Amino acid sequence: MYRLLFIFTLCICPFFAQAQNVLSKLEKEYDHASKNTTEQLNLAPKFATALFFHKFKSKSYQILETSIPIAAKQADGKYATILYAVQAMNYRLDNKEAESLKSLDMARMYSLKTSSNEAKGYFQYAKGWILIRNNKTADAVAAYLKAIDYYENSPTTSTLYGRFGNAAKELSTIYSNLNEYQLEEKYSKQFLLLASRQNDPNLIFDAYMRMGYVYEQKYAQNPSDTALRNKAEQYYLQSIATFNKNKEAMLNRSSLSYAAINLANLYTEFNRDRAMQYAQLANSVSLETGDAIHIASSFGILAELALQSKNYDLAKSYFLKASMEIEKSPVRDHNIELSILESLSRISEEQGNYKEALIYYKSYVDKYKSIYDQEKLDITKRLESQFDKERQEQKYIKLQLESDKKAQEIRLINILRAQREQVYNNLKLVEENQRERLKFSELESEKKEQQLRLAKLETKQKNNDISNYKKLLTFKEKINTYYIIFIFIFIVLIVLLLYAYKQRAKSMKQRDELHALAMEKEKQNSKISTLTALLEGQEQERGRLARDLHDGLGGLLSGTKLQLSSLDLHQSENIEDGISKSINQIDGAVEELRRVAHNLMPDLLMKYGLEAAIQEFATRMSNSALDIHTEFINYSNSIPEDKQLILYRIIQELVNNAIKHADTSEIIIQISEEENVLHLTVEDNGKGFDPASLDVRKTAGFHNIESRVQFLKGTMNITSELNIGTSIELQIPIH
């Protein structure tokens, strides 16, 4: 039962809770930095976190809400990233998941605006921290690894090692839960190294605890290796020594009870006195701090120690106290409650109080049924059977290991026998060696004769070496000659390549100049084409004006002349009637003259602008068979008069084209302004046409319109569908 309590304590132990004096110190530093924005933004995350875990949540949120807008105005997104990340973690601890995700997304956005790898790493750390609490372990591991990558590529700051260490600690905890013990040990050691570099006693304390738990797990897997147990004990003792040495700087008084619980749990198996010592220490400290889980854990260990001494009454009282503390805790673990009930039932049975044992056991069964359904019970039975099977396999493996051990002992005996035989053989070799020495003295004389022969051979070899050296010198001279020839050829090739490169560069420059001249010529041709089209439009306009004057005004004046010439001055009645008709004809001529003049240069356009002229044109062109609408949106009449006249002519041409060719009954003229661009749209509901078959150059009306649009530096888009209608859109820059 104490094992469950121990693990539960490890999992929920808070990672930060400020002592009151440290909190006051932070507040003074934060207030003192009010005139220095950078210093205050550096202190804000730590101060806000301290306030939050000291249950000053509203003030913590206030600090963040005050600091975040200031950080958001900074050119670099470093401070905003860290502050939003802290806010996201606080919201998640406060069970405000929607707000947490929103703040995390803001942290991500500002992390893209900063060059600080430490800030980017802190965002990834906060992301992993939230993901692991949302049961997304794989995604959390990926985020923590990204954080570590950023931290490894970050310059050293006053906070880097602490933040780096926290990421390593989180990874170590995750791999511990996944039974990946090698990775757990790797990141626990990294956490200890970083905590030492940061020189923060709180981090060093956590790192020692983490390492102690690593070796305790290893010892649990291999109980025969007491060296692992001793290492776990050593690290736990170092954590307590660190706490006692730095009491004033320690952030959490309950850390001492946390370490004492782990030590007491470790000593329970082999040193009852020390287990009792640290269990009582944990109990006194946890009662002082009011940490319900630590109180329950200490009572659980004391109960187990009492059971070892068969003091059932004391054990029962400890278990009941542990149960009461568990009920006080905001975080309940049903497995612990079940374990307590089972232990109480077992104690009552040992005491012979079977009625009480039955009551506790029924409570155990009722709670068990309330937690687990029948399917989970079946799973439990299956897992138990698998566990028994694995245990049998472990026994078989153990027997096999013992058999291997005996085989190794037999092999060792054989090796010793072989060694004795080797000693005997060595003695024989000594005797043979002595015989060989006698032979050696005989060989000495032969050796001297061989040395004389060798001296002669050495003399001969020296003569050969001198000959070979002369040949080598001759060969080197030839090689040097070849090198000189090769260098000369290489220089000639470089000169030729440089010459070819210059010629190529010169030809490319000439080609670029020719291309630039061709482009300039093309631009001139385009300008000439545009001006020609404008002149053609003007000629067509003059031709239309001449036709209007000849066919309209000329005809009326000729009719008036004939009417006046045919008057009989002797008949007064005919004279009055003729003069009346002539006056009517002159009125028509005047009206026709006004119409022609208006088409040539509308008065409304000159006096009131394009909007009034277009509206008057639409009203004049509308009739019972044709309805022309005009719409002006955000139009400010800021276009110069010469451009307004060209636009007026374009609209005239588009409307006339629609009337002549589209067989339309409704036309819409829409003009709007947006960001110094004039948008002109003329739509009709006529019979339409296929834009792909339209050749602007062969269609005089569209060619004139396109030329005017190009003159205005605008663009034109034609959309038309058969039996639906046509829409022509123009975009004209205003300035």
UniProtKB/TrEMBL annotation:
> What name does UniProt use for this protein?
histidine kinase
What range does the record give for the signal peptide?
Answer: 1-19
Transmembrane portions of the chain: 482-501
- Mind telling me which Gene3D superfamilies this protein's record contains? 1.20.5.1930, Histidine kinase-like ATPase, C-terminal domain (3.30.565.10), Tetratricopeptide repeat domain (1.25.40.10)
Which residues belong to any copy of the Histidine kinase domain?
544-735
Establish whether keyword Nucleotide-binding is in the entry: yes
A GO cellular-component term linked to this record: membrane
Q: Which reaction does it catalyse?
A: ATP + protein L-histidine = ADP + protein N-phospho-L-histidine
Q: Which Pfam families match?
A: HATPase_c, HisKA_3
User: Which positions are tagged coiled coil?
Assistant: 389-460
Which of UniProt's keywords are assigned here? Answer: ATP-binding, Coiled coil, Kinase, Membrane, Nucleotide-binding, Phosphoprotein, Signal, Transferase, Transmembrane, Transmembrane helix, Two-component regulatory system
Catalytic activity, EC: 2.7.13.3
- Whose protein is this, by species? Chryseobacterium lathyri
One annotated GO molecular function is: ATP binding
